[in-house]
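Lecture notes, continued. The same structure-token format from the folding unit now serves as the input rather than the output. Read the line below as a description of shape only.
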């Protein structure tokens, strides 16, 4: 609740932008050179295939890795 997510391509591959709040995702293995990218106001996370949670705060971004690689 309270998350603001925009689905778009922030880089060369697929991805989204998380402006505020938290999102949990399961991302399939990505092809070489085109990771799934999650952009926040403070960071850009390149996801290679994993299960994780991203929290975008006012001055920081936190990634909680559950499985795989980011």
């Amino acid at each position: 609740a309270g998350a603001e997510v925009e689905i778009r391509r922030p880089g060369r591959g697929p991805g989204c932008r998380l402006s505020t709040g938290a999102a949990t995702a399961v991302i399939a293995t990505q092809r070489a050179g085109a990771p799934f990218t999650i952009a926040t106001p403070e960071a850009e996370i390149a996801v290679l295939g994993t299960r994780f949670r991203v929290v975008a705060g006012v001055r920081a971004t936190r990634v909680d890795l559950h499985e795989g690689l980011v």
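Point for the exam: The chain is about 0% helix and 60% strand.
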